[in-house]
Amino acid sequence: MPEQYAMIIGSGFEEFATGSELQTGETRFGSPSAALRSTDIAGTPVITLARHGEPHCIPPHAINYRANLAALKSAGATSVIALCTVGVVSAIRESGEIGLPDQVLDFTWGREHSIFDGSDGQLQHIDFTEPFSVGLRAQLLHVARSAAIDCYDGGVYATTQGPRLESAAEVDRLERVGADYVGMTAMPEAALARELGMEYACLALVVNRAAGRGDTPIHDDVEASTESARSLTESLLHAFFESIGA
Ligand code: HPA
Question: pTM above 0.85?
């Protein structure tokens, strides 16, 4: 069976969520953030979903992650590339760059983070030693290297609750516990994808230095850096899906 790729599209990158609407019903967890769409990137069919809704208005803590992942699963997705905007905590990246984190820390609370809620008599303790799919990350990194696209291999993604950004002291603490990136959405997304048996890789789009890390006000940093992250992302996705179709 060939892979069916899907992309979950994060803040500010909604133009990647294009294509014709797929017929998607409710899931047992409710409705996804937006219509699932079917598009074609470099000859490969891809399902897209705007994580924060269309228009962008669902904050990270209020996203129905279970419905999003369940809807992708029932649309036939087997492999999910998640575009996640992040701030950078450590020195591994600069604003405007991209990376593929290989570990996660979860500081979120109050989110529905498992499909195993006891309602149907099923329970699984998924192995989450490698929270992001090793194979899908390796494929993306291979393509990035072959196409000379600068994409950092690894790093720890700390997931905060949002929707506010962090204080400088919170970012200092995140760095002390090993974080390289900070974002608000990779969890519980990655865990739900694993529970549902889908590959999942998080493409971290660095749009700012995390609080207390740069001289520029964060929103100015985001404005100055988004275009560069967008262009790297576009190049990587194009090269990736071209390599799949080849
Ligand atoms: N913190 C949390 N989430 C983010 C940030 C940040 O600095 N930038 C983009 N998403």
Answer: yes
